[in-house]
Design a protein that fits this description.
- This protein is of the alpha+beta class.
- The protein has a domain at 35-80.
- It has helices at 39-48, 63-71, and strands spanning 25-30, 56-60, 76-80.
- A three-stranded antiparallel beta sheet has the order 2-1-3, with no helix packed on it.
- The longest helix is centred in the middle third of the chain and has 10 residues, at 39-48.
- The chain is globular.
- It starts with 24 loop residues before the first strand and ends in a 14-residue tail after the last strand.
Length: 94
């Protein structure tokens, strides 16, 4: 039976485009469930602060956060946060 999906390492972007990395904060929204995915992906979602489907968190952008997002990029949607946004950031001490 022929393989229907082939992963080519040399295809696709070599690095993240500069306009997608921000100096500020990013809003991460879980758009797909972790059910049926590996335990590593479920733990990564939990480490990001996403406890359930459709959850949203605002985090400071960093290379470590980008690595976590890359691991579960098919389960989340990431958008930059404008300064002065009305939502509270998770973990703030206000």
């Amino acid at each position: 039976m022929p393989r229907t999906h082939v992963w080519w390492r040399t295809r696709g972007p070599k690095k993240t485009a500069k306009e997608t990395i921000t100096k500020g904060k990013v809003r991460i929204k879980q758009v797909r469930s972790g059910i049926g995915h590996s335990w590593r992906m479920r733990l990564t979602l939990e480490a990001l602060g996403l406890k359930h489907h459709q959850a949203e968190v605002i985090r400071q952008d960093s290379p470590a956060l980008r690595g976590q997002i890359k691991h579960v990029r098919h389960l989340v949607k990431v958008t930059p946060v404008e300064a002065g946004s009305g939502k509270r950031e998770e973990g703030s001490e206000e």
